[in-house]
Design goal:
Blueprint lengths: L15 E15 L5 E9 L2 E7 L4 H6 L4 E12 L2 E12 L17 H12 L5 H11 L2 H9 L13 H16 L8 H11 L3 H4 E3 L3 E3 L1 H5 L2 H20 L5 H13 L15 H24 L8 E5 L4 E4 L6
Parallel strand pairs: 3-5
Antiparallel strand pairs: 1-2, 1-4, 2-3, 4-5, 6-7, 8-9
Helix pairs in contact: 2-5, 3-9, 5-6, 5-11, 6-10, 6-11, 9-10, 10-11
């Protein structure tokens, strides 16, 4: 196979390429002469390219799993002004042999370092019951592995592998900066609330060979899942220590989770009613919005324009030159 990898956004017409692609969609069709051919979409982290394989068969078509990987040999060509990939040969490729970072968008930051930084911040929690509760989450290896991989959202912000961790750490760092300014806010509740506010997304969203909503995510949702897990792990702490876990702490942390979207319109079953819930909500919104503005500026298709196109989620066009004083 080619080394280094040729990404979709680097391809031009007339290249011979042999490498692994993610096969998004596929369809077996019949040509005018009665022969079978396959139409599919080949993808990596930079984009998609339509693929065509002439003179194929049902067995070849069925051997390639949808949203699976295939080692493909072929050539790029221009077809009516657009690039396509003509496939000469292909075979299934095991997902264990690929670096998913080549095929799905991934955080630009070091995931293990971000996790270590987040742990260092939550170690600052002083209340022994809250510390014990957070520890139950951190000791769950499967949960932590999924936390590190999960996106923070499907489209709006941090929508890539490691996005949830990046977003949570961004909020925690902001909290560390502003908490000294607000003496009437309980730092333990804020830091724990930040760690827990979106933790249910590890079960709501999937980031395997594609990102999407799980059945559980559609039926229950990350806010409800996060709240349930708080209660379950508080009970685990109580069972292991033979102490009654303070119900007030459970209620306050659950309230922060239930209200962190800020309004019922955006999915919160409760409105913020304590200072810590307001802080978590606004830090959540701040981190998401600043990511969105930076993303829009970095990916604007017209570098000469002072403004991005209208962004519906931000309800504005973003001015790109505010740093250039």
């Amino acid at each position: 196979m080619n080394d280094p990898r040729k990404y979709v956004n680097q391809m031009v017409a007339g290249e011979m390429i042999e490498q692994v692609f993610l096969v998004r969609d596929k369809e077996l069709r019949t040509a005018r002469n009665g022969s079978l051919y396959m139409q599919c979409t080949l993808a990596d982290r930079t984009g998609n390219i339509p693929g065509r394989m002439w003179q194929t068969s049902e067995s070849i078509f069925n051997s390639i799993p949808l949203d699976g990987f295939a080692q493909i040999r072929g050539r790029t060509e221009d077809y009516r002004g657009a690039l396509q990939f003509v496939i000469d040969a292909l075979r299934p490729w095991q997902s264990e042999k690929v670096d998913l970072g080549d095929f799905l968008p991934v955080t630009p930051h070091d995931i293990e370092q971000m996790w270590a930084d987040l742990l260092e911040i939550v170690r600052g929690i002083k209340d022994r019951f809250i510390r014990a509760l957070i520890k139950k989450f951190i000791e769950d290896r499967e949960l932590v592995a999924n936390f590190k991989r999960s996106p923070a959202a499907m489209t709006l912000h941090h929508a890539y592998i490691g996005g949830l961790l990046e977003h949570t750490l961004g909020m925690a760092r902001a909290a560390v900066a502003v908490l000294p300014l607000y003496k009437d806010v309980n730092p333990d509740l804020v830091l724990a609330g930040i760690f827990l506010h979106d933790i249910g997304k590890i079960a709501e969203l999937t980031a395997g060979t594609s990102m999407g909503y799980t059945d559980r995510g559609q039926l229950v949702g990350h806010i409800t899942l996060s709240a349930i897990w708080i209660h379950q792990r508080a009970q685990q702490v109580a069972d292991e220590t033979n102490e009654i876990f303070p119900g007030k702490i459970v209620d306050l942390l659950t309230h922060i989770v239930l209200s962190h979207h800020g309004t019922m319109e955006f999915g919160s079953p409760r409105l913020p009613a304590i200072p810590e819930a307001f802080m978590v909500h606004y830090l959540d919104n701040l981190d998401a919005k600043l990511w969105m503005t930076a993303h829009q500026i970095a990916n604007d298709p017209d570098p000469k324009s002072s403004f991005t196109p209208y962004v519906r989620e931000l309800e504005t066009r973003v001015y790109k030159k505010s740093r250039e004083l």
